C-alpha cells in the first residue's frame, strides 16, 4: 500500500517561507563585531574629574597646617611680633583664627565628598561597579578623619586648659590629622588617575571578554555562593540589571541609526 505522507522537503520549504522579511534582513545584514562595540564603549568613556579636587584639597590642607603652626608660634605663644598679629587678626586672636580655618577646611572636605559621591555614582550607573565599591570607603575617609578632629578640638576647647597647653595639643591634633588624611587623598588621586588613564570597559564587558578569550577564567560574582553576603549579592545584581537596561537602550539606538544609514 502506498501511503502518502508529508514530504520533508515540503516541510523545509514551509519553514523557509514562514520566515518574515524582517528576520531575513536582520540575518543577512552586517553584524557588529565585539571589537567595534568595545571601541565604541571606550570612546564614550567619561573620566572622573575629582582627582583635581583631591589634589587641590591636599595642597590646601598642607598650607593650612603650615599657616596654623606659624600663627600659633608667632601670635598665640608670642614668640614673634605680637603687634603685627594684633593688626592682622584684630580682636579675633590667633587661636580663634586657627579654629575658623579648621571649620572652613572641614566644609571643603564635605563638598569634596559630595562631589566625589556624585561622580562615582555616575560611574556606577555606567557599569563600573567594582571600582565604585573599591573607592566607596576611601572617598568618605577624609571626611571621617576631619570630623573626628573637629570632635577632639571641641573636647580640647571645653576642657579649660591653659592657653599654652591648649595650643600644643591643638597643633598635635592638626598634625596627626594631616598625617592620616593626606595619604588617603593622595592614594585616592592616584587610583582615580589610573582609572581615567586605562579607560577600561564596564565590568560586564570585561567579564564577557575574559570568558571569550580565556578558558580558565574565574567565575563571575553575580550569583550566590556559599560564604558570600546575600545583601551584597542582591545589591550587585540590582546594579547589574540597571546597567544592562541602559546598555540595551544604547545598543538599540545604535542599531536604529545604522538601519537608517543603510
Question: Which terms would index this structure?
Answer:
262 residues; mainly alpha; 10 helices; 0% strand; transmembrane; transmembrane helix
What does this structure look like?
The chain is an all-alpha fold and 262 residues long. It has a domain at 47-202. The protein is built from ten helices and no strands. The two termini are 56 Å apart. Residues 8-32 and 209-224 have low confidence and may be disordered. Its main location: membrane. Belongs to the TMEM192 family. InterPro entries: TMEM192.
Strand content range: under 5%
Question: In one word, what is the shape?
Answer: elongated
Mean pLDDT: 75
Helix fraction? over 70%
Radius of gyration (Å): 31 Å
**Assembly status:** single chain
Structural class: mainly alpha
Distance between the termini: 56 Å
Summarize the structure.
Helix content is 78%, strand content 0%. The chain is mostly helical and 262 residues long. Helix 4 (50-76) packs antiparallel against helix 8 (163-198) and helix 7 packs antiparallel against helix 8 (163-198).
Helix-strand blueprint:
Blueprint: H1 8-18, H2 21-28, H3 34-43, H4 50-76, H5 82-89, H6 94-125, H7 129-157, H8 163-198, H9 203-213, H10 230-261
